[in-house]
Design a protein that fits this description.
- This protein is α+β, with helices and mostly antiparallel strands.
- It is built from 16 helices and 44 strands.
- A hairpin with a 4-residue loop joins strand 33 and strand 34.
- The termini are far apart.
- The structure holds beta-D-mannopyranose (BMA).
- Beta-D-mannopyranose binds next to loops.
Length: 839
């Protein structure tokens, strides 16, 4: 009997996070304080009670000194014997923010200038039994002011709030490869951080280490998926190996592979039989495979890496058609309508975002029937945890590179820095099935052609304008796509929005659109319907967060719209005025601040709902809608649908319905109702549609039913003539039309009112309620005698209402879950109001 030789893993490289204790101080002070790594100066100052909560009231104003100072972090650490014995010991810094000098045992080992890059340094010769690691941070502001001062012109950087930072018009953000939003944005405060914002790892190995491993799907059939693994290895001698690829627990291939001395990359093709495909939310499973790569020689495993990926193909179809130029996603060969939102970092201080907060944000997207988020270019390349969640939950990612609303330098050093940034991040992210496309920047192309930047710079000097636009082109049309192409073959879109790759500003027949005339230009909501492009990648409307959130950053005396504190948490110069103006179009003036918050949220929700329905019902002309914005990075009035604490605004409840897999949407033209039945499902469905008119007392005035065959992945139209309803006999301000899919209660009903909301003759409803405990909290049953418009449930008890801000019909009973950990929940803790109570 021959024994099968056993594979030994004793020689594997060791990778471990450096988990030592850290201290920090301002560079020229003597006293050290405890620090948290990963973290940043602001959060460390807060932890040590050296500053107050940066988000509270107007504290932001008093904390602007922090970014003008130099800071230093220090740690003493020792390594295990096992690590010390290895021939190579590396320190790998996953993120240093931003201008850092790193000293190991008094020797400078690294000098950095890009928050988004990773840095790995060979340290074997410097490592001792006990080691001192010092990281000195230069001020990102002071460091770049000389650059700003040395130029004969100023780079446009619309959102950089330099004045709030106390440095006048010196918009220095563009010089530093650092999250743009930390310099202030029209929904964010200004805190320009420094710190070790991502973990540090020790990598120790003898001869061979795998530096990179990624897997891509090439093609798929029912029987087989063909994939390629890319394996990069660093070795001190040329070495012949056997590379094993495993999918889950099955050995898929074993391939003889030679890695040359130094760093080399090899490709190994492999297949998986009867593949389980990865689908986005709403269309199927998010099947994931753990793919493992073991490099071995003579039954010794030299290194192993594993990743989790999904088998799927993804394309962005941007080609000429009868309208102009399309812009849509094909997943596993199926054209898919994208429903989602723009995503900004969950905190101004990203290192303090926990996995639970990522989970809550991504789950909120899933729960609202989304299938895409756009990671917007003024923030950060998100953490692995975020993309893992998107892989697991089926949220496709439109990934911007981190450039937004500014022009950037074009010197070789800057371009080189960006090249490395792209390489680091694409390598880190490319195996995620959730990533659908890469985009060069946010709104720079449209700013140049559409916002007057071109003319503004030409006025300054035609030569400078030409030079700046050449720099733009070099960065977004050469440097970035070239660096990307070496690593990944997903679609690259140089700037959002754009009509097409040939640099023109957006138009409705081609490419993607940011439509902002509702809001910025004060146009009415119905304009959303007249401005539907091929892919609506941005549009939005502001609201304030709910009272409980406002209580977190205000004193009772601050709680008026225009107070100093509320104004500090409203960063759009006309935000409040615009909200008030729009409120006046559609709603009665709310009687107090509390009701202003409630009605303001309804206003936002109705506006965006209208836009989403216009976009979805226009398919296949339009094939995507991403409203601005999913979330906040601090407590603020903004365009978000969930606030800083993850609380759903009215908008998020409305979005959940507007993004429902089957959507009913109706428009009325004289005596014809035109119902659009939008289906994202991939199967035909037959059902019947009921359309009825009731009055606010609950009397049915007219009803009609029609059988329909609902087209899969498309929009089916059904028309009803309601001349016979003789609506004029009744009062239009006292009736509503209800459209439902008869045998499918999961489809949200569509309610159509015949006048503006403010003209409705609402009665004061008597709303009854009963509460019983269930396994996740409580279930609340409510009902009403007359129409209760936009019923809003509120409580001081921490928890989540499964539905809110809904219209409750006369005689209707509705059950809402209140998910909470609270042991008791009495009816006296529940406050219920409806629109009629707001004015
Ligand atoms: C969009 C975004 C952001 C901005 C938002 C609201 O254009 O790209 O730059 O915060 O509008 O104004």
């Amino acid at each position: 009997m021959t024994l099968k030789p056993v594979l030994t893993f004793a020689q594997l490289p060791i990778i471990s996070e450096l988990k030592s204790e850290w201290k920090f101080k301002q560079i020229d002070s003597v006293k050290w304080y405890g620090a948290i790594v990963p973290g940043c100066v602001h959060t460390d100052l807060l932890k040590n009670k050296l500053i107050p909560d940066p988000y509270y009231r107007t504290n932001e104003k008093d904390l602007q000194w922090i970014d003008k100072k130099k800071w230093v972090y220090k740690s003493i650490f020792s390594l295990s014997e096992e690590i010390m014995e290895k021939k190579n010991i590396l320190l790998s810094f996953k993120g240093l923010d931003t201008y850092a000098k790193v000293f190991l045992n008094n020797v400078e080992i690294l000098n950095t200038n890009n928050m988004f890059r990773e840095w790995t340094v060979e340290c074997k010769k410097l490592i001792k039994d006990e080691n001192e690691l010092i990281v000195e941070f230069d001020s990102p502001i002071e460091k770049t002011i000389p650059l700003f001062d040395s130029l004969p012109f100023h780079y446009p950087a619309t959102n950089d709030q330099s004045i709030n930072g106390g440095i006048g018009d010196k918009k220095v953000s563009i010089f530093t490869r650092k999250a743009g939003f930390q310099y202030g944005w029209d929904w964010g405060p200004r805190f320009v951080t420094s710190g070790i914002w991502k973990p540090i790892y020790i990598i120790a190995y003898d001869k061979v280490r795998q530096t990179d491993f990624c897997v891509t799907t090439n093609d798929i059939s029912i029987d087989v998926a063909n994939l390629t693994a890319l394996i990069s290895v660093e070795t001190d001698t040329t070495i012949e190996t056997l590379v094993d690829i495993w999918a889950d627990d099955e050995l898929i291939s074993s391939t003889k592979t030679t890695f040359e001395k130094g760093l080399s990359t090899k490709q190994i093709a492999f297949s998986i039989k009867k593949p389980r495909l990865w689908w986005c939310n709403g269309l199927g499973q998010q099947s994931l495979y753990t793919i493992k790569c073991i490099i071995k020689k003579d039954h010794i495993a030299l290194d192993r890496k594993e990743l989790r990926t999904g088998i799927r193909t993804i394309e962005l179809i941007h080609e000429k058609d009868s309208i102009g130029k399309s812009f849509y996603i094909k997943l596993n060969d199926v054209p898919i309508f994208m429903k989602g939102a723009n995503y900004i970092p969950l905190d101004l201080f990203p290192s303090r975002v926990t996995n639970a907060r990522y989970e809550k944000a991504v789950q909120s997207a899933v729960d609202a029937n989304m299938n895409m988020l756009r990671v917007w270019g003024g923030g950060i390349y998100e953490n692995d945890a975020f993309y893992n969640l998107c892989d697991e939950k089926g949220i496709l990612i439109w990934q911007d590179f981190m450039f937004a609303c500014s022009l950037y330098p074009g010197d070789d050093a800057f371009l080189d820095n960006v090249r490395n940034e792209i390489t680091d991040n694409v390598k880190r992210l490319r195996s995620h099935p959730s990533i659908a496309l890469w985009c060069g920047n946010n709104e720079i192309n449209t700013a140049w052609y559409g916002w007057g930047w071109k003319e503004m710079m030409e006025k300054e000097s035609p030569e400078i304008a030409i030079a700046l636009w050449n720099d733009y082109n070099r960065l977004f049309n050469t440097v970035i796509p070239e660096a990307l192409k070496k690593l990944d073959n997903r679609f690259y879109w140089p700037s959002s929005p754009m009509a097409s790759i040939d640099q023109k500003a957006g138009d409705l027949s081609s490419g993607d659109i940011h439509y902002w005339e509702v809001w910025h230009a004060g146009k009415p909501f119905k304009e959303y319907g007249n401005n539907v492009g091929r892919f609506m990648s941005e549009y939005g409307f502001q609201s304030f967060p709910e009272m409980k959130t406002i209580e977190q950053y205000t004193l009772p005396s601050d709680r008026t719209i225009e107070s100093e504190v509320m104004t500090a948490h409203q960063r759009h110069p006309n935000g409040n005025q615009l909200i008030k103006t729009y409120l006046g179009y559609y709603y009665n003036t709310p009687k107090d601040f509390d009701n202003f918050l409630y009605v303001g949220q309804l206003l936002q929700a109705e506006g965006i709902k209208y836009a989403i329905e216009a976009h979805r019902t226009a398919r296949p002309w339009c094939m995507g809608t991403l409203y601005w914005q999913l979330n906040d990075c601090w407590p603020v009035a903004s365009w978000s649908s969930t606030d800083y604490y993850g609380k759903w605004k009215a908008l998020h409840y409305f979005v959940k319905k507007a993004y429902s897999p089957l959507l009913l949407s109706a428009t009325i033209d004289k005596n014809t109702v035109s119902v659009s039945i939008v289906s994202d499902q991939l199967k035909w469905k037959t059902d019947s549609i009921e359309c009825k008119i009731i009055d606010f007392d609950g009397k049915t005035l007219w009803t009609i039913t029609a059988a329909v065959t609902i087209k899969p992945n498309g929009c089916t139209k059904q028309f009803f003539d309601f001349t016979m309803a003789r609506l004029n006999k009744y009062t239009k301000d006292y009736t509503l039309m209800i459209i439902t899919v008869k045998d499918d209660p999961t489809v949200p009903p569509c309610y159509v009112y015949f006048t503006e909301i403010k003209d409705l003759k609402l009665l004061k409803p008597s709303i009854w309620q009963s509460i019983i405990a269930n396994e996740n909290g409580y279930s609340i049953k409510i009902g009403t005698n007359v129409l209760a418009k936009n019923v809003y449930l509120q409580t001081d008890i921490e928890g989540f209402f499964s539905d809110n801000y809904f219209d409750l019909l006369p005689g209707e009973t509705k059950t809402i879950d209140f998910v909470t950990k609270a042991k008791t929940f009495k009816s006296t803790s529940l406050k219920i109001r409806s629109l009629v109570d707001s004015y």
